[in-house]
């Protein structure tokens, strides 16, 4: 009873400071995107090298800055995080799939896998704060076209790691992820291996249709767990491409439902 009373009387985990720090973080992210577009990438373009080398410089620069951004948010007290199995990410021809509970999931993944390609929202190519980075890194816009599928499969065939969120958008709070078949189709056409990443955010934040200033009552904890590799060829042999794609997509959907349900039962958020 005494512990319960103490927890109820605790302050709201520095709520006003976290709100201010969250605003500063979003401002920093926007200004960083503009600086990359207007200053950093024009300077990098002056360096010698092939088109592939320029692309890799852009991706590594973005990844390095993304990870610095995560560390700054942790330093400001906005969030805490833990990542298990990150050393198994970034292999040649590896498709990295993840569920998508929060706006900054991609920041975590590209911050850890700095050579990776990524399928991103097509609208980012028109946003003044993000269009410079996504174009210089030659990320793939998710416009739902066959060209997008071809580009993603080709990048895997060339040996690039590829980050993709099969849901295509953030998961509404309290709902299970619903995967589109496009990711499975890409994997069957180009991936050497599929590696799932299970992302959990407690309490939920930066979800779909949620403004940045609606922060939770306590500091957010991100947990990223790299799962067991999946061989796409085990599904390619199950029948024609549409059937194999459907079976792989069903398997991924069931896998994530099981893993997320297990984590919710077994995982407790550590104290900041």
Description:
The protein is α/β, with parallel strands linked by helices. A seven-stranded mixed β-sheet has the order 1-7-6-2-5-3-4, sandwiched between helices. The longest helix is centred in the first third of the chain and has 31 residues. It starts with a helix and ends in a 6-residue tail after the last helix. Keywords: Acyltransferase, Membrane, Transferase, Transmembrane, Transmembrane helix.
Keywords:
disordered N terminus; 272 residues; alpha/beta; seven-stranded mixed beta sheet
Mean pLDDT: 90
Report the C-alpha radius of gyration, rounded: 19 Å
Strand order of the largest sheet: 1-7-6-2-5-3-4
- Amino-to-carboxy terminus distance: 22 Å
Largest sheet: 7 strands, mixed
Order of helices and strands: HHHEEHEHEHEHEEHH
What is the count of β-strands?
Answer: 7
Please report which band the strand proportion falls in: under 5%, 5-15%, 15-25%, 25-35%, 35-45% or over 45%.
5-15%
- How many alpha or pi helices? 9
Structural class: alpha/beta
Shape field: globular
Provide the low-confidence segments as ranges.
Answer: 1-11, 268-272
């Amino acid at each position: 009873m005494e512990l319960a009373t103490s927890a109820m009387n605790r302050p709201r985990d520095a709520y006003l400071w976290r709100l201010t720090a969250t605003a500063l973080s979003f401002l920093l992210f926007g200004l960083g995107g503009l600086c990359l577009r207007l200053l950093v990438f024009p300077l990098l373009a002056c360096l010698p090298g092939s088109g592939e080398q320029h692309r890799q410089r852009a991706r590594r620069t973005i990844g390095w800055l993304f990870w610095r951004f995560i560390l700054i948010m942790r330093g400001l007290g906005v969030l805490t995080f833990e990542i298990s199995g990150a050393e198994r990410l970034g292999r040649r021809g590896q498709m990295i799939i993840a569920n998508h509970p929060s706006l900054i999931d991609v920041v975590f993944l590209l911050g850890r896998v700095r050579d990776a390609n990524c399928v991103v929202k097509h609208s980012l190519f028109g946003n003044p704060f993000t269009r410079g980075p996504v174009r210089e890194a030659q990320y793939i816009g998710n416009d739902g076209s066959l060209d997008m599928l071809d580009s993603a499969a080709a990048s895997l065939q060339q040996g690039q790691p590829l980050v993709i969120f099969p849901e295509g958008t953030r998961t509404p709070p309290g709902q299970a992820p619903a995967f589109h078949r496009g990711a499975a189709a890409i994997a069957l056409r180009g991936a050497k291996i599929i590696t799932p990443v299970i992302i959990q955010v407690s309490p939920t934040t930066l979800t779909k249709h949620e403004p940045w200033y609606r922060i939770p009552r306590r500091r957010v904890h991100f947990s990223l767990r790299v799962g067991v590799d999946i061989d796409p060829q085990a599904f390619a042999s199950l029948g024609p491409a549409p059937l194999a794609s459907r079976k792989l997509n069903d398997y991924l959907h069931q896998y994530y439902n099981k893993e997320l349900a297990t984590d919710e039962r077994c995982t407790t958020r550590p104290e900041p």
